[in-house]
Amino acid sequence: MDARTPVEFFGSNVVGVDAFTRVRTALMASHPDVTVRVSRSQVAFRRRRGFAFLWSPGQYLHGPAAPVVHLEMASADDIDDEVTTWLKLAADEAGH
After folding, report:
1. Collapsing DSSP states into helix, strand and coil, what is residue 29?
2. Domain range for residue 36?
3. Structural element, H or E, at residue 14
4. CA-based nearest residue to 58, from 69, 47, 48, 46
5. For the whole model, what pTM was predicted?
6. Radius of gyration of the chain (CA)
7. Does 71 reside within a domain?
């Protein structure tokens, strides 16, 4: 596992940094025990187990790709109320 922070992981990928911040903010409000792990390939949100993962497809895929993926996102604005609800449900399940 890399010791990088999520911001270092995404580097100049502003969409990735913004997406991470929005997901973390949404989850910490409802699940303060969520932890974040950064590996070489992704940023993982965990409770007892991982339930949400962000990665940058451009690191691995050739050709056009979304700047960041949990769902394919072109903007952090794609993390709307529906996505936030899914993340909170996933966090609930990961804590069991």
Report:
1. helix
2. 6-94
3. helix 14-30
4. 69
5. 0.85
6. 13
7. yes
Tracing tokens 């409770």 back to the chain, one arrives at 47
SS3 content of the chain, % helix, strand, coil (to 5): 45, 20, 40
In which residue ranges of the chain is pLDDT below 50? Answer: 1
**Number of domains the chain contains:** 1
Provide the pLDDT for residue 27.
96
d(CA 40, CA 32): 25
> Where is 39: in which H helix or E strand?
none
Residue 57 lies in a domain: yes
Residue 30, in any domain of the structure: yes
Q: What's the pLDDT score for residue 69?
A: 72
In the beta sheet, which residues pair with residue 52? 45
What per-residue confidence (pLDDT) applies to 43?
A: 96
**Can you give the pLDDT at residue 46?**
97
Residues counted in the chain: 96
- Does 17 reside within a domain? yes
Alpha-carbon distance of 81 to 33, in angstroms, equals: 21
